[in-house]
Structure prediction request, 970 residues.
Amino acid sequence: MSKSEVAQIRPKSIGTSIPRREDPGLLTGRARYIADIVLPDMLHIAILRSPVAHGRIRHIDTAAARAMPGVELVWTGQDSKARCQGIASTLEQKGFVATIQPLLAHDEICFVGEGIAVVVAHSRAQAEDALARIEADIEELPVVTDAAAAIDTDDLANAAVPANMVYRSNRVTDPVEEAFASAAISVEGCFHTPRVNASPMETRGFVARHEWTTGTLTCWSATQMPSFIKTMIAIFLQFPEHNLEVITPAVGGGFGQKAHLHPEELLTCLLSIELGRPVSWIEDRQENLFRAPQAKQQINDMALAVDDQGRFLALRDRVITDSGAYNSLPWTPLVEGHAGILVVTDPYRIAALSAESLSVTTNKCPIGAYRGVGFSAPTLAREVLIDRAARQLGLSPFEIRRRNVIRQEDFPYQTRAGMMIREGTFLETVDRLEAMVGYEDFRKRQQEAFREGRLLGLGVSIFSEVSGIGTRALNFLDFPLTSHDTATVRVEPTGKVTVTTGIVTSGQGHPTTLAQIAADAFGVPMEDVTILAGSTHHAVGFGTVASRSAVFGAGTIGRAAEIVRGRMRAVAARLLQAAPDDIEMTGGMVHVRDDPGRTMPFAAVAGAAYFAEATHPDDFDPALEATAAFDPSDIVLANGGHAVIVEIDMETCLARVEKMYAVEDCGRMINPMIVEGQIRGGMAQGVGMILLEELVHDERGQLITSTFQDYLLPTSLDIPDIEISHLETPSPLVPGGIKGMGESAMISTPAAVAGAVNDALACLGVAIEQFPASPQRIFEALSKVGVMDRGNNFPV
Amino acid sequence: MRRADEDQRLDVVATVNGRERRFSVLPRLSLADTLREELGLYGVRTGCEHGVCGACTILVDELPVRSCLMLGVQANGKTIRTVESLAEGSSLHPLQEAFRRHHALQCGFCTAGILATSQALLAENPCPTREEVREVLSGNICRCTGYQTIVDAIMDYAENGQAGVAGGERGPAE
Ligand code: FES
Ligand code: FES
Prediction:
């Protein structure tokens, strides 16, 4: 049977807002995160990080550090290189340049914060004391910090990447000149999205314990991808994979940042093997800001051709991704602009697309995945341009979208990048959002505010999201990877259900929602189901990334349950004297279809399968345990929209979000309360990215925002209450009709916030295309048109 | 005034979660690390260790304090409450129940600090407005929830206290 088979699940628990089972542990301080893992004899790591952005290591003197109290070991890059070359990251794409990121730099240093030496000591404090005694002699090299300029310079950011170009592609090159020539208007802009850090409240961490007596290596990792990490350790360290276990404790937020193989993880394993003792690496916030994968930095030079009716004719985009010094693993910089341009037209009918993507190496921390990945930036550019076109044509932002979204009658609709869109609620989303905002009233309010000297703005964003990403979606996005997950389900002799899965949570609620799925798969109450997760001994899977866990959870558990259910049906059919096909399971009972009188408890059927051979049909396989894989047969597309109202204070130039609205269609919701939590959290991060957050590098490549005093995250005063409305278009490719949505808000909210800032400033002839829209940027933009000089007097 | 060398452990007596505790710590150790490493109170979380994120917030003499910015030795003679003190036996405190009911946590990493801040707020102002709750919460960063449900939970508790509906795991029809 195919891995894409869609098992039958009858929603009962699915669809209800059941409180989370993981909350009691998290609310009482009982849950154990990576920093709480304490093992007998455990040692602690501190890493010396490069103070220069580009250089060559002449010499590192570690003698004084080695002599410090409590120090067990000091390594430089030469020591780690002797055991592991580093993390090789490539993709099978013509012209793609592979990089090898050393665990510790041993020759060329390519960014500030790159590890150059490591100390292992009895406490983290002692290890840090020793770091201060290491003398590093580094020859500085020319620094490349500006991705746009890096294309034409002779200076290389990383000697392994010729011309600073990791990958350049133009998969969709429709001729668009004619459309632009004939268009009534064309709108264009050059949009810069900020380099940001996902900044989970818990930083990264890893604990390794090597036991030479058994040859086993047990790792605890705050990771979203345990199976992947395990296989990579096996490959990069040549460690026998069957002797490896990766355990995932409670994880304090991931958002993509913890969906990478980090050099420190391999290093920690090596150190434990070397020392024969458990070794713990828990980074501090500064290390996280310096060294954890960064994200979102793109330049989108985009233009949209529109006819006099407001219909879109063509879209042109040239996107540069500021990739940093190495390719992250597994995503590489393609996770940004390159993936983004392949979906840039998606909610709309746009007949012609010309898109070019460049991934450019710079002397910065590697770019990686962060919620919404490379979809956020092109969505922002497109939606801001759509608003701009609407203003020029005198249309409302909702009306122009209504005229262009893909409608029911268009399905199946193939986008110019080649995606087949089969279902969705694009038009309904626009209508619903407009009603929620109260559009006419808003415009009146905006005018009144203007007369009082206040600037209000409305931004709108309509999105679709490639969710439940498996092999098909990855390949569509030009990641030639195969990805499937497995789950194992076992019906216990007393009729309880044990599910083992490779899906791990970093807060998204899987222990609860997967139990809802499994309960419905067997027609048993949820309290009869347990979910085992968090060890690679359990199951395999690609991990919790790309809004895929609900989809893969339903797919894998559904298929495995189908196998076990078949066996239970065979036994029940004999006991109830009916055909197996007529046996149904609901409410903890097994009964004959359309004959409620013939029924017996689910547990009794399980008991018979285990203990009563007389009830078994011929050739019966009594294993009430099965493992199955799942990978959706095609892209599972979710959709929705966001609207944001901001007010800009003319005196401080501070943009404040006044109200936010969301419409979400993730197919059938497993747990609406959890879905809304995902939306709210994602929207808050979207506000952060567009108004507050930015990793700033100076011209020497120094990161000058390395604490939370400089890198500003949204607080409870920055995020208003959010109004949410749901639509449900079930996916035929997933049991229960489920679709993913974890990233939706971060794909689309940044666009709505950016649109709102631009709408607020449009009356003054000002546009903001560089983000975050900090007070300084708004001040500068207003100063340019002379508004600030006129003593805050509006040109009314 | 007592002087100590940097590697000399100092004796501390403090009331921690209702019990008198005696322990000795190095003067360099923060109170957060002291509570975690010396007393095993791992519910105390550190997210930044420079006083911004609020994850390490605990109650010291009933006032909310950044335990990353206080030294372990400064606990001497103080009364300290951490998240571990809130639930009674195996039942959640009604404030914790309200957090669960309103889905006021996701990864849970900020939760201990937010509970401490909320307790201090409610002790001083048992009937806060939403705006007052947001104002007081602004020193605790949460990266997962978008804050709204945290405000909902605190308001619910303030308005209904123990009377809130118990938030068990219930099936739809059960
Ligand atoms: S850890 Fe104390 S405020 Fe962040
Ligand atoms: S719940 Fe994750 S940081 Fe608040």
Q: What stands out?
A: The radius of gyration of chain B is 17 Å.
